[in-house]
Amino acid sequence: MTTRTAASRPPRDRRAVGSLAALLAAHSISQTGNVVTAFAIPFYVLALGGSGVEVGIAAFFATIPILIGGPFGGVVVDRVGHRRAAIVADLVSGVAVLAIPVLALTVGLPFWALLALVFAAGLLDTPGQTARRVMLPRLTEQAGVRLEQSVGLLDGSERFARLIGASVAGLLVALVGPIASLFVNAATFAVSALLTWLFVAVVPRDEQAQRPDANDAGSRTSYWADLGEGFRFVAHDPLMRLIVGLVLITNLFDAARSSSLLPLYANDRLGGAAALGLLVAVMGGCALLGNVAFGFVAHRVPRRVTFAVCFALAGGPSSAAFALGAPLPVLVAMTAVSGLAAGAINPILGTVELERVPEHMRGRVFGLINAGAWAGVPFGALIGGIAADTIGLSMAFGIIALAYVIVTLSPLTGGSWRLMERDQRPPSASSRPGDTPDPSAPGPSAPDPPASGPPSP
């Protein structure tokens, strides 16, 4: 298999470049809205006199749609079209969010209705993210950009949204209150939908890699058959199984650290929330830098070794520093290293997933992968809190550091992990059955998430 060189890359299409830029901007704006929601809802519940239990219930209703909307909404993304699904997802999320302050300021909003609207606002969020990620390969090819680079930019836009969105959300809630901030949140979804509608080009249907029988009305499959096909693909693909299993475990560790152990450690040994805010900002900022920078060199490094080493560095050394009771400057330095290393993870995962999954199945498969990757998150915080109370913070961090390194270095053992490499790309991922491979298509050198590649540290 030949490696694509700069000379053999397709010329840049200015309209496609604009569409790719609009897609990245829409994704970042939509994700910023999610961050505002995550800040505003708990403070709204507390302002109504809600208890910690009610805040936790609201957080549960904001998280559980990821596990439901990912796999079930992914089929809808494949069936209705990626661009249309992204627009509709933003509009539905925006309307649901807008209904919260409108009802609260007019007829009143009981707690059960708040939970229903929070659930509705998040239900199509993951399918919307998946739809934008699935549009990447075609726009990337037409724009003359390497796929690793565009995946890195998309993931970087998510990290940027979380980094900036947290500050904006905190400022909005402090200045105008949680209700008024939700009006701004609803506006972000509207802007994202408008950007996608106006500036993201439509891929002609005859150029899309659809199911071979997609145009045969008599042979169209049912929703449940499509969902089952996605399950079978993930279950039968050895690399997809390994990726879901690995990221499920690491996300559980990350949830234990970020939701329970780090706040407890900061409160007990670092003087409070200011130190925690510093560590979170350093992690987010360095992850963003590493993410964008890695996209420009990803095509020059071996995937499997880079993935394993960076994943181990993303969680192991920093957790070990907390376990050893290192001073704050050392913790900041180790957190910076972890952030830079974490920036390489999602570009590799996202590229591998886009290469291996046939285009007509990407919505449902990516949704299933995201749901699997997030399945351990609700339990991570609980396990972290129990571990802190039973074995202590230092021991809990030490166990996570050791387990994290062992698990994340598993790709070095070989086996099906070798399928990550560029020369192992399945030809069916980028072409329709019976098509002749296009030499100008983005090859291995050119995921949600959960995407969208599985979420990384």
UniProtKB/TrEMBL annotation:
Listed Pro residues bias regions: 439-457
GO cellular component: plasma membrane
Membrane disposition: Multi-pass membrane protein
Region (Disordered): 418-457
Domain Major facilitator superfamily (MFS) profile: 14-416
Main location group: membrane
Compartments in which it is found: Cell membrane
Domain of life where this protein originates: Bacteria
InterPro entries to which the protein is assigned, alphabetical: MFS, MFS_dom, MFS_trans_sf
Bilayer-crossing regions: 56-77, 186-203, 239-256, 276-298, 305-324, 330-352, 364-387, 393-412
Keywords annotated in UniProt: Cell membrane, Membrane, Transmembrane, Transmembrane helix
An MF annotation (GO) of this entry: transmembrane transporter activity
A Pfam family hit: MFS_1
Protein name (database record): MFS transporter
Organism listed in the record: Mycetocola zhujimingii
Taxonomic placement: Bacteria, Bacillati, Actinomycetota, Actinomycetes, Micrococcales
